[in-house]
User: What shape does this take?
Amino acid sequence: MTLPSRAFHVVLIIHAHQPSGNFEHVFEECYQHSYNAFLSLLEKHPGIRLALHYSGPLLLWIEKNHPEYFARLGKLVASGQVEMMGGGFYEPILITIPEADRTEQLTRLSNYIEKHFGKRPAGAWLAERVWEPQLPSSLAAANISYTLVDDLPFLAAGFEPQELFGPYIAEDCGKSVWLFAGLKELRYLIPFRKVDESIAYFKNAAQLHPGGVAAFGDDMEKFGVWPGTFQHCYAEGWLEEFFAALEENASWLKTITPSECIASHVPLGRADLPTASYAEMMEWVLPTSTRLRFYGLHKEFSARPDLLPFLRGSGWRGFFRKYPESNLLHKKMLRVSACVAAVPPRRSSPEHAAHLQEARDHLFSGQGNDAYWHGVFGGLYAPHLRTALWRHLVRAESLVDQLTPGKMLPRVEFLDYDADGEPEVLFTAPEYQALLKPSDGATLAAFDFRPSSATLINSLQRRPEAYHSRLREAASSTPAAGSAVSIHDQVRVKEPNLERFLRYDRFPRHSFRLFLFDSSRTAAEYETLQLNESASLAAGAFQIRKSSANYADLALEKTLPEFAADSANPPRLTITKHFLFGPAPHGCEVSCDVSLTLSGPLAVPLRFGIESVINLLAPAEPDRFFEAPTGRQNLRFSGTLPGPILRMEDGWQRLRVTLHAPGSEDYWVAPIDTVSESEGGFERVYQGSQILALWRPDFTNNPSFSARLMWRVVSF
Assistant: This one.
């Protein structure tokens, strides 16, 4: 193939990110295997010009732990070899946070980059490359002039593939930004195919599009952190070979920064793009049954590239429907944002201003995207990432209450907290905040212990995922050690026989759910979700009878056909639940009193239980444990512990939870283990413990029965 007559340009945009709350050793490993290694090669190849984006949490960590990296990076910026890109400081999905927060997140990172590297960024990286049509206005408001999205939204808007070799203009309400189309084919070539294949791709593009531009945008972690890529990119030399090949072909193939491209090119036209992200993300967001059908359809038409752009998944917001836990966290964030924005200013009080700034810092930290979604990378299934966001938001909300007149008194609010169309009840005091869902068995969906900035429930409902059917195949087809494979194609498992942990919850993992079931059932059946409990009681819609700032009375009436002695005349069951919240020395208490009254005989004796779901995170750590009269137990304990008192302790969050169930026989305890997919393969993750306080009501001789479960939460 002859050399192109005009220079062809390549815009490389490399993105590096670690979420707030990630483990220290993960930051360090990624630094050594990717960020430092990548920069070292870049220093050796001054002919490579590109844009780098680092998220705020990663920059803060590098500044503290490897300040020499800033000096090295600063030299590359000063020489013009590297252009620094901005973005949301804590890597939020911009379209999911309020407009004022978008501007502040973007401005914060721009200010930070200008302070440390001397130049204010012109461009912004979009977290997970999530695009919605209103974003040009948001970006322009923060003085951002360009960004990159995937080629998929262009193709979905009717662009032809050959039209994507240059930048476009996107506009909203008169505000515009330049858009680069990140080419998917390049994402799968780099760094997984031979370097010659990438050069051949560029040469062919240059012949077809003289003077054109090919844009590549992807994660720096794929150069050293993804499985097998450190060996592939550095030990075996792929990345150095790639950089050298670009330099060797510089007579016709030139790497330029995005700003250089904008300065030397005119836009190819308008780009009015639909809501989109990269193709894999738009598949992950689909509900599992739909995703399986989508996968089959995509496979059926894989030989029709002309049709594939029209076969795409859904927008990023669909994660709020797929995972109510994500939705709840998101609505917590929106509430905290509104509360922070509503704090009345006190210009004469530096202390007030400092506390308000601290609340804003925690709010923006709580907007980081990672724990709001799940795919190969998303951290919703990672309790430490989910907890980090909750802790920031709990702390921000607590600070705001301290700054707002009247907010330090116990109060109750009736609202649709999670925007599901059902009313909730929110109890707030200086020591706690509790969200009660009458529509779901009158359970607590969230319980924040403010002295420790801890959220205690914070579990996940175990549900089918599209990749669960691949587990058996994964166990027998692990790639050879050290092989480099796209993270979207890998099949790995972190422990054998993970399929034995695949079990799916009937209800969301809330606390104070009521269980009524055949007394012959066992603790083992509780662990495997085979109690066959009355679902209409456990998840029934209770009616609020009365409430105040610290208590609520709720009631439910239902029949029990599943346990009726006479199926033609099933007994009626009347249930009341009375919640009481209040302070305690160094903490708080919540009690739930339950009364059951039956109107007729039952076919079998029943057991009754009140379930607690509590997540103290790392189950193997010695400072986190159950404590019963029989001694201490690991948090992954499964079996029976004696009642009526059971204690849990968390030395990291410095809190103790005491469960007291007067008159109970014992507690059945089991870990809530999910099986999920991550960048390292399939893994089992502890999502807390389910703890059932048990009684044996004698409905034969007494149609009424009462029980109480109390939590006492204290800090130490």
Remarks:
- The chain has 20 helices and 28 strands.
- The longest strand covers residues 681-695.
- The CA atoms of residues 535 and 675 lie 24 Å apart.
